[in-house]
């Protein structure tokens, strides 16, 4: 990159935006190949969901899966603050292989457009289109993806995601409550892993950790061109104009937070507000000691990650 170019926004250590409009990506753009993972026995493949727009996903299933025993389906939205990573990211690929093996599930990892090239709501639009594509397979004569038609129990469908992916799952659970798609596909439960919610006014550890508060502020302002800033309802579920959590379209919800995560207190607040909201489902919260945000993506083989995967597997298979 030309060192003489002026930087308009520096989102260290992930990317730089220059005043001429060019973007330099410094991390989070690595790509892995789908296929059989010999360590976990999980098979994956990439598929284009919507050819007109190029929306795609990476599908996972146990290689040992048999068509006569249908498996739960998890629709997964990856993290990355809406501006880095993809469904083909090696860190996500390795992590999701382990989750699929532990839980014995079929998983659809959605690849959505990211900012700043594609600011919000692009990621939500792509992710919703992906959900529509999946839902089409629940009908006897709908959809053509063999892995979904042959291996999935559409009576056991889950939404899951980490960080901004958990944010997406939250908004879709609200949107599904009173729309036609919510009648086509019933979401049994949602797993929100280190959910990315935020707000202008600091809470909890954010009050004293001003450096990380400012960092996350900067991330959100990069991806969402909104006059409301960090109090936009997309990122702050408790600001004016946000719908009540009472309307979540699922029976169960799991919130996972990490002790050292700057987003921890927002996840705790979400759980507390949900329990008090009048929602008729069952909420659980799991806190991982001594870990930071999305640690399981960076180190999926550590003991805490294994414990978390077991907890997720239990949550899915007992629903």
UniProtKB/TrEMBL annotation:
Residues 74-296 form the Alpha/beta hydrolase fold-3 domain. InterPro entries: AB_hydrolase_3 (IPR013094), AB_hydrolase_fold (IPR029058), Carboxylest/Gibb_receptor (IPR050466). Belongs to the 'GDXG' lipolytic enzyme family. This is Alpha/beta hydrolase fold-3 domain-containing protein. It comes from Salix suchowensis.
